[in-house]
């Protein structure tokens, strides 16, 4: 894949690591970054040797938001006709599990990008917020919806209306992030979690992700029915036979990822 100018893509075992790389702009997410992240993750998503994708930024900034300088001159017709930011939605369609490893600023589009990932790990230095209102705009990559689902109306409304940011501890208490890690250990921890996920059965991990995500889209009864269908379906996999045989034989499973 590539060549890419604004991101770095590395492979470590069954994990792919994607690093946002516009350090001078604190990884501001311009359209080139969007197109490269989406293209790269879609290539990785189709690769059977990739079982998990980690997205990260720099120590100072995961991403300080959408690129304000790029947006500044745009008018309504520019935004509408180019369907500005809609490509980001494709990250939510990836089947491979994704992990956001967030250190430093995750503001505006940066917070939204982190929320597009399946697991959100935060360094103790992480700062989250939707400060768009201070620029005279509102979130545009799903922040008003995903933040509200993650932390509830009370905090989401306050953050979106005042532009106030949350530190890592508040974000964890509010349920936005799964865990906080010391900044110096963030990447190693994210890669370790990724390798754990990537070591599971790939189709079963995809189904687990699908099932959890369905909770945000449907009623409880429909969601449970959906889960039950997938639960029955995993018994068609070789990995179910291997996983349960390994338990009975008191040995680690060796999944074939099918
Ligand atoms: N867009 C474009 N450039 C940005 C940027 C952004 N979102 N955030 C930072 N930069 C640039 C700065 O302009 C600066 O560039 P120059 O050296 O050329 O001036 C460089 O990155 C370093 O930034 P600062 O000097 O501001 O660094 P700091 O440490 O003093 O402050 C910060 C850090 C508090 C994060 C500050 O940069 C900031 O407030 N950034 C903007 C945050 C923001 O409003 N994000 C929301 C954007 S709108 C959005 O995301 C819409 C949406 O929902 C999709």
Concise structural overview:
It contains 11 helices and 10 strands. The strands form 2 sheets. The protein has a 6-stranded mixed beta sheet with strand order 1-2-3-5-7-10, sandwiched between helices. The site of acetoacetyl-coenzyme A has 22 residues, from helix 2, strand 6 and helix 4.
Topology diagram in text:
Layout: E1 7-12, E2 15-20, H1 31-45, E3 52-56, E4 61-63, H2 68-71, H3 76-81, E5 98-102, E6 105-107, H4 109-115, E7 119-123, E8 127-129, H5 143-151, H6 153-162, E9 166-167, H7 168-174, E10 179-181, H8 186-199, H9 202-214, H10 220-233, H11 238-248
Catalytic activity: a (3S)-3-hydroxyacyl-CoA = a (2E)-enoyl-CoA + H2O; a 4-saturated-(3S)-3-hydroxyacyl-CoA = a (3E)-enoyl-CoA + H2O
GO molecular function: 3-hydroxyacyl-CoA dehydratase activity
Function: Could possibly oxidize fatty acids using specific components.
